[in-house]
């Protein structure tokens, strides 16, 4: 006995189904204890004594607040600056020259970059620093900001706030730390407004039927998100990415992920890096 509210097999399945239908996150039976632990505090705070009562509240909640909190508790938002850094080296060495070619050909500065599943924003801020270093802040006054989306409102609020413990900034070069952050205390840094302005943070659920983008992207980062999805959900999302990428556009996924063989419309470039268009 650990004093936590019990979750029955049936209750766990009801919850897993609801989460799957809402955000596509696939919870296997192995996650039962994790889910029970993560939701106990929420259930108690709401004044319930069982998962069943909690479900009733979820069903009758028209504000969407409870379901939103549920998703926040279940999704894993772990991230940090310059995570899987070889992607960012490749971005500077190979993607940026390609972006330059496109801009030169089109005669505009319309670059479209999407950090899809951005969690608390570290990936998007990393890209913003690299783009600011490459193009300067001027570029952005003409070009589109980086789009960064997530389904978790809590994660997005943290992204908008832009205040991070040093632990998440360990891989940020010293020069960038000085240039783009204000030190708040021993262990905390604040992203400067000049950097914040380069990013548009929006709530967006990959499970939505409709993706509200007018134009396709040149680069999509969707890293460490699809690991939580089952194959049909993942395939549907990859098809959307394919649709919303420019020809030869880049798709970056997490290093522990793969597109598999069912997506011939992407060609493999290097680990966790693909381009739109068959070989
Ligand atoms: C582990 S974080 C990845 C953060 C960052 N991309 C990285 O690689 O460090 C996974 C994020 O995916 C988000 N996510 C999960 N399901 C989603 C969905 N259906 N729509 C949008 N975002 C989702 C979660 O909220 C979480 O913030």
From TrEMBL:
Bilayer-crossing residues are none
**Entries under SUPFAM superfamilies matching the protein:** Chemotaxis receptor methyltransferase CheR, N-terminal domain, S-adenosyl-L-methionine-dependent methyltransferases
PROSITE patterns listed in its UniProt record: CHER (PS50123)
What is the enzyme's class at the highest EC level?
A: transferase
Which InterPro entries does the entry link to?
Bact_Chemotaxis_MeTrfase, Chemotaxis_MeTrfase_CheR, CheR_C, CheR_MeTrfase, CheR_N, CheR_N_sf, SAM-dependent_MTases_sf
Q: What is this protein called?
A: protein-glutamate O-methyltransferase
Reaction catalyzed: L-glutamyl-[protein] + S-adenosyl-L-methionine = [protein]-L-glutamate 5-O-methyl ester + S-adenosyl-L-homocysteine
Reply yes or no: does the keyword Transferase apply: yes
Q: Which GO terms describe its molecular function?
A: protein-glutamate O-methyltransferase activity
Q: What is its EC number?
A: 2.1.1.80
Superkingdom of origin? Bacteria
GO terms of biological process kind: methylation
Identify the residues that the record assigns to the CheR-type methyltransferase domain, covering every copy: 1-279
List UniProt keywords, sorted A-Z: Methyltransferase, S-adenosyl-L-methionine, Transferase
